[in-house]
Amino acid sequence: MPLENKRANRNLIRFVHDSQPDEVINIGDINDYTAPGRWSAGQRAEYGMTVQQEAAYTRRHHIEPLRAGYDGPYTLLGSNHGERPQKYLVDRAPALYDEESFREDKLLRLDDYGMRFEPTRYDFAPGWSAIHGHARGISLARYAGGTAINAARKYGRSIVMGHTHRAGIISETTGPAGTKTITGVELGHLMDITQAAYLGPERLANWQSAFGLFHIDGTTVTPHLIPVSRTGSFLVEGERYK
């Protein structure tokens, strides 16, 4: 946000209100923070919406509407976009750097809404971790799910992640008689790709819009990807949100 697919955001909020999940995990990059991005350096975008204005936009259009009908656990993961305000100050104005004020959870005032912030990794189910995916040492793949399975190999456990803007699930089984299976899940994105000016005039990118559902029963974890159309609609268990 504020480059989100607005219909997708509204439909997702309505789905959360209807389904009342045990927990919502936001995989990160909830804000674009366009002005301090490296793509914006020296461009008009660097002098556009401030990080405070972007955070206020997200509270108004995502956090507050979602909280109006869902009071369950909500965890936001740290991400490369979320780190942009702090990195911008360190690089461009170190004398003004404040570790607390420009941390994403502070900009979004998550404490006021009863939401958690996890800067690196969140172990949300037995054998499963959620990360954003921008950490060093994770080999990027050009196909959906490939980066997540690379991360799963690195951590030795199943991984769900964002960062790549791709949506895919890949599992890998090893050991005698298939004793160990790890799974990598990439969750796609909910961005309005037409606003991604840095992709060039044709907006060419191997990105897929989606979000994920995880059914957890003891140690059994079953991931599902929910594709989201360009108009922001999606189908969940026979019900269309549009």
Q: What do you see in this structure?
A:
The protein is of the alpha/beta class. 22% of the residues lie in helices and 25% in strands. The strands form 4 sheets. Strands 4-5-6-8-7 form a 5-stranded mixed sheet, covered by helices on one side. It has a 3-stranded parallel sheet with strand order 1-2-3, with no helix packed on it. Strands 9-10 form a two-stranded antiparallel sheet. The longest helix is centred in the first third of the chain and has 17 residues, at 51-67. The radius of gyration is 18 Å and the shape is globular. The mean pLDDT is 91. This is Metallophosphoesterase. InterPro entries: Metallo-depent_PP-like.
Quick tags:
242 residues, alpha/beta, 5-stranded mixed sheet, 12 strands, 25% strand, globular, Metallophosphoesterase, Metallo-depent_PP-like
Structural topology:
Layout: H1 6-19, E1 24-26, H2 51-67, E2 74-77, H3 84-92, H4 104-107, E3 116-118, E4 121-125, E5 128-131, H5 146-155, E6 158-161, E7 167-174, E8 180-187, E9 210-217, E10 220-227, E11 234-236, E12 239-241
Helix pairs in contact: 1-2
Q: Structural class of the secondary elements?
A: alpha/beta
What is the N-to-C order of secondary-structure elements (H for helix, E for strand)? HEHEHHEEEHEEEEEEE
Instruction: Tell me the number of strands.
Output: 12
The low-confidence parts are none
Fraction of residues in H or I helices: 10-25%
Average pLDDT confidence is 91
Strand order of the largest sheet: 4-5-6-8-7
Q: How much beta, percentage-wise?
A: 25-35%
Oligomer: single chain
Biggest sheet layout: 5 strands, mixed
Radius of gyration: 18 Å
SS field, number of helical segments = 5
User: What is the global morphology?
Assistant: globular
The number of domains is 2
Distance between the termini: 20 Å
